[in-house]
Amino acid sequence: MMSKAKRPPPDPVAVLRGHRASVTDASFHPSKPILFSGSSDGELRIWDVIQHRTVSSAWVHSAAHGIIAVATSPLIGTNKLISQGKDGTVKYWDIEEGDLSRSLPLLTIKTNAYHFCKLSLVKEPVTNLEPTYREAETLDDAGGRAAGTPEEFSKPYEGETHLGGSSYVAVVGEESSVVEIWDLKTGERVVQLPQNSFADNPSFSSKERGMCMAVQAFLPSGSEGFLNILAGYEDGSMLWWDIRNPGLPITSMKFHSEPVLSLCIDGSCNGGISGAADNKIVIYNLDHPVGSCVVKNEIVLERPGISGTSVRPDCKIAATAGWDHRVRIYNYRKGSPLAILKYHHATCNSVSYSTDCKLMASTSEDATIALWELYPP
Amino acid sequence: MEEDTKIRRETESRLLEKVGEVITAIQAAKHVDQVIRALHSLAVLLFPLDSSLLSGSIDQPYRDQVLSVKAPSEKERSDSFQAFYQGAAFPALARVLLFDVASNWLACFPFSAQKHVYDVFFVNGVVNEVIQVLVPGLQQNRISGLNIDAVQANIERLLVLCLLENNGVCQMARKFGYLCKPRCVSDKKLREDVSRVAQIVTSVPDKARLTATPSLSSHSFFKQIILQLLSGVEAVTMSTKNEMDGTFLFIGETFSRICRRGSSDVLLREVTPQILRHVQSCLLSSNGRVSTDLIESNPGSQFWLKLMEVIVDSYAMERISEQLLNQLVAVDASDVEAYWTLWLLFNRLLKHQTSIRSIFLDKFLLWKVFPVSCLRWILQFAVLECPPTTNVQTESHVTDSLLDTVQRLAAVWSKREFVQSVSVEQQAYVTAGIGLCLEKMCKEELDKTKDVMHSILQGVSFRLESPAYLVRKMASSIALAFSKVIDPKNPLFLDEDSCNEENIDWEFGLTAPKKGTLSISNRMEKHTDELKTSITSELAKNSKYETNNMVNDNEKCKSKKLSVFELVDPDEIIDPAMLTCESVSDDNGEDNTSENSDSSSDSSLQPYDLTDDDMDLRRNFSQLVDVIGAMRKSDDADGVEKALDVAESLIRASPDELTHVTSDLVRTLVQIRCSDLAAEGEEESAEEKRQGALVALIVTCPFQSLDTLNKLLYSANVDVSQRIMILDVMTEAAQELAHTKTMKPKHQTGVLISTISEPQPWFLPSNAGPPGAGSWKEISGSGTPLKWSKSYERELPLKPSQIKIGKTRRWSLRSQNTQSHINWSQNKFPVYAAAFMLPAMQGFDKKRHGVDLLDRDFIVLGKLIYMLGVCMKCASMHPEASTLAPPLLDMLRVREICHHKEAYVRRAVLFAASCVLLALHPSYVASALIEGNVEISKGLEWIRLWSLEVADSETDRECYTMAMSCLQLHAEMALQASRALESAESTSSAKSVGLKSSLSRATIKIPYSNVQY
Question: Which windows of the sequence hold WD repeats (chain A) (predicted)?
Fold first, then answer.
């Protein structure tokens, strides 16, 4: 590993095949070695990432529209899953039984939005990086550590939801420049950003910025539990909203010259990374009290187009999924490139990290999901 | 005075009497000693002879007689000597001596007698007279009763003795000198004599027999004569200054005669070193500061100056000057030496004689081919008229003749006919002439001339279009020299090769002898290659030139700026952005250190190999339709390139839709501009891919693509390069089709309708199978007796390939059949030959907008004919060749084609003709003759006649060799055909008699044999 000669970039540790169409998104179970993936033909698959096998599969959205995004979060419950289809619906699933095909979703939100923007669940600062399902992988590693079922670990998260809780989902609404927050408990729309109905607000509009292409909800440490939203728009600009002031964003910035395609806030919620249709990846710091967003690193790419970004929960490395079929790994702190992963032979759609930072999944239009183990934490 | 003549007459008549006596004595002689005695009696009167020397060799009675002869006094002797040789006595005696004595008696003469009483008459006589008798004797070959061989051998021996061993020629020269001194002979008479004698002397080698001694061969004979003249006469000249006119006259006459007899090389090989030595000594003595006076006043120079003055024969003068130049090159003379040599010999003549001027300024510049160093000397001497070392070249009078020369050269050079009809060497020579002149000129001088600039530009521009590399090279060299005149700092390089050459190679590499003879096809292929490169390279030229300049400029700027940059500027404006940048990087640094301190894991983030290529990102086309679409988007260069990459393999896969898109695909491929889309330096590969794709298209889908290509070939929408490309592609495709090996199953003659009325019950399996199979037998089931189906078996014979080892056999429905039905078809081309050739042959003589094959686009015409030739070759020995040959020959016979002005086209025609000869099957030729197929026999006869004509009168060397090989092929073909004809006759004569008559209508000639069919 320390040898002078450059190591060739690694191959995926496993490739999950089974989807029959472009895999648009994948998300790890917050605690179990399980991966959820959705494809553009509407199929949702649940994978066992130890045995590399499909656990179950279900057509949860219509084949004509397909799935845009799948998401899990400890904040909405460990066995809960959100899927977003291009058919204008967001579905909230309970995967307790492990079989989605026979059950109905817990909740179906009709957003009536027919666009490409992936939804976002709320991200909370990770204070404790304890492994959550370590015993599920290797028993040796669990020695000396507090033992317990994943369910037990996840309980405190559920308890922590306060001030409106965190079981919210941020999606782009019917009006494609407007971000909407929906409450998963009630199935109602909580707020629209920008909120044009407020009388005292001299109608702030994000229309001229074009469609909202990427959205990320998070709870920065200083926000007292009020949601913050970061949204990227078609013209390359980004807006930072505080849910308490839906009329006006905290700040706006423009790092990109082309539509912002993906946003990811790091585990500490103090910064993030964004990818766009131009040839730049921008890593920035978010200073919540000041309300400023400062560019930390700007990485120029050879070939433009980043459709997915992800920061590993330990904030050490970040990954991007590129149109050029490559997954690129960067040192998140320095912004220096670490690896160019060539496996997919079609556009990569997304990358995501497991909660324990060990695995990374990349999805691609070539209907495969590749699992990678790089830089073990 | 009267007394003198009287005495002389008396002596003369006395001598004549004596000679008469001697002759009668000789004729009456019965013994050799009688002859000797008779001759001795005369010799004693003329020469100081010591009779005792003879005594040993003759018998007693005669010896006494000989010894008793009284020798006359000195005075008497010299008188009679004069009278003898000037009068009729000598010729009369000589005739007897040379013929009668030589053939009858001389062999019996003892050696001393031969020397003292026979040879003496010639060797010691007056050479001029002797020669006039001896030399004509060489040709008397029909005299009855004489031993001709002995007579001639004797004369030759005497000639060697007189002229060579006795320094006879030198004596003659001196003699002429004396003659003119007292003015005893009139000038005219002298000239006549001189010229007659010189003529006789120089004719010796030609009159001598082939078996004569080697010293009489023209080479060594002339060499010795020249040496005698040079060494002997030079010495004399030194002493007696003037009045050597006769001598010079003789030398000059002899030299010019030698030149006329084609031995100017021998002459100059001897003369040149002498002159050169003289010039060198002059140069040495003058310490490098040579002046014309100095050289003229040198006594040694006088000899040469005078000598050159007396040579009036302009032909000889031309040969001399030409050989002199060649010799100067051979001895590696320096420029200065060569100049002064030329000056010494020709300066006066050049000024006074127009013929010499025209030799130097016309013939040597336009019609002859010398090495380039010679050309330099010629220009220096005849045009610049100043020694090469002087720096002052722009004197007005000098410039005039230079400008005049340049103008004349350029006028010739810029004519298109010059390129078409003159050999390459000559072209290179004239090109070099212009180039060297241009190098001596400056812009103002060039401006003074009227048409030079115009004709040079014209000449350059049409040369650049030529298919021959050398011709283009000449154009670019001239362009370079020309641009240097116009603007010395900004030379124009039209050719990549010469980019870094400061001096232009005016010899164009022609001096190295070309060895070996390439086959016809090789030659043609070489040309196609050249052509390809030329098209692309020319396109790249301009841009390259510009970039070159840019680079140079940049470098200059850089070197300037570097020094500036090193100075510290106190007023430097600091860019705030730079400051922030620095601070940011500082921040990062802090960040890193802090991170490093709290977590060592960061060090584990060692980057992997970050090299990346985009090989996998190339767009992959899987449909031909996509390929066509991509190629049509000319603004997306990448897309076109990728489409080109995959096109060939997709076409080769031959998908079902190929036939439907062929036409579109062909059009699109032809229209692509490879030079536009590819990066510099990669045009070649793009071009190759495009052509590869087209070839693949023709091979996989011949009829459709050929249809389209042939339409495009004569359409106004394509340019010359595209037409050439189309023809290239067709050529390649024809070759590929001809050489493909395909595995195609033999047509299986299976029954389409199975008869049910087979002579066996329906439940039995069919009898089909290999021959020798046994009949079906029911297998009696061993196990249960109840069975709902029956099994049958039969015995099969072994396949030839099968060896019966062990028990395992393998059966399948269509296993072995395939093997036996594979047919290796070698040549797929003949089927398509007509589609290749006929449409292409139709439109060659059309002249429409943008299409003018016969005149302007002759390269296309050449390519077209070449393609047709290749097609013919590919179809050779197939019946299609025989049907296609007549129309092709008809086309070749068209006057505008076979007598095309450009050698390129003629070469192609020769190639096509020889392909026809190769392609026709002898039996077909034979049957065409028998059946009276006039078309084919006429065509073949035309090939023969035309090749003969070309071989006779062709300026282009390659055409000549190709015509020769064409003739050879014709001979072979004729031989084969005649053999086939003989066998056909032997069979047909039995059957029918009527065929015979038609045979006479067609003829086929076989060289080297008199048989005509």
Answer: 16-57, 81-103, 341-377
Point out the residue among B607, B611, B612 whose CB comes nearest to the CB of A336.
B607
Q: Are B87 and B8 within 8 A, CB to CB? A: no
Does residue B239 carry a pLDDT above 60? no
Q: State the smallest CA–CA distance between residue B610 and chain A in angstroms.
A: 6
Length of chain A: 377
Average pLDDT value for residue range A238-266: 90
Q: Which of A279, A324, A333, A365 to mutate to test the interface with B (most CBs of B within 10 A)?
A: A333
Q: For residue B788, what pLDDT is reported?
A: 58
Percentage of residues in chain B with pLDDT exceeding 90? 6
Q: State the nearest Cα–Cα gap between B552 and chain A, in angstroms.
A: 31
The CB density around residue B716, as the number of other CB atoms within 10 Å, is 9
Q: In this structure, are residues B409 and B430 in contact, taking their beta carbons and an 8 Å threshold?
A: yes
- Nearest CA-CA partner of A285 in A263, A266, A261: A266
- Any long-range contacts for B471-479 (C-beta under 8 Å, 24+ apart)? B471/B419, B471/B424, B471/B427, B472/B534, B473/B497, B473/B508, B474/B427, B474/B428, B474/B431, B474/B508, B477/B431, B477/B435, B477/B504, B477/B505, B477/B506, B477/B508, B478/B413, B478/B431, B478/B434, B478/B435, B478/B438
**What whole-number distance in Å separates Cα of residue B551 and Cα of residue B573?**
30
- Tell if the CB–CB gap between B592 and A334 is shorter than 8 Å: yes
Nearest to B902 by CA among B415, B524, B419, B465: B419
- The token pair at B463 is 């040369």
Q: Which residues, 6 or more positions from B377, have their beta carbon under 8 angstroms from its beta carbon?
A: B325, B328, B335, B338, B339, B342
What's the pLDDT band for B5 if we cut at 50, 70, 90? confident
DSSP A140: G
Q: What are phi and psi of A235, to 5 degrees?
A: -85, 5
β-pair partners for A35: A28, A47
- Distance CA(B955)–CA(B713), nearest Å, equals 31
Say how many C-beta atoms besides its own lie within 10 A of residue A103's C-beta.
Answer: 13
Q: Which residue stretches of B29-126 are H helix?
A: 32-46, 52-55, 60-68, 74-86, 89-95, 111-113, 120-123
Residues of A in contact with B608 (CB under 8 A): 6-10, 338-340
Is B601 in Cβ contact with A342 (below 8 Å)? no
At B728-785, the pLDDT tens digits run 999 999 998 888 765 554 444 555 555 554 455 566 666 666 666 667 777 665 555 5
Q: How far apart, in whole angstroms, are the C-alpha atoms of residue B360 and residue B149?
A: 47
Give me the pLDDT at residue B935, please.
83
ipTM of the prediction: 0.76
Place B237 in a pLDDT band, splitting at 50, 70 and 90.
Answer: low
Is the pLDDT at B519 greater than 80, yes or no? Answer: no
Q: Token digits for B291?
A: 């002046």
| Cβ neighbours of residue A196 closer than 8 Å, sequence gap 6 or more | A203, A204, A205
A333 and B595 within 8 Å at the Cβ level: the answer is yes
B606 interaction partners in chain A (CB closer than 8 Å): 1-2, 7, 338
| A160 vs B857: which has the higher pLDDT | B857
Model confidence over B300-351: pLDDT tens digits? Answer: 777 788 888 888 888 888 888 888 888 888 888 888 888 888 888 888 888 8
Comparing A356-360, B110-114, B581-585, the range with the smallest average pLDDT is B581-585
pLDDT one-digit tens code per residue, A81-92 = 999 999 989 999
Long-range contacts of A130-137 (CB under 8 A, 24+ apart): A131/A356, A132/A30, A132/A31, A132/A355, A132/A356, A133/A31, A133/A32, A133/A33, A133/A355, A133/A356, A134/A356, A136/A32, A136/A33, A136/A50, A137/A33, A137/A50, A137/A358
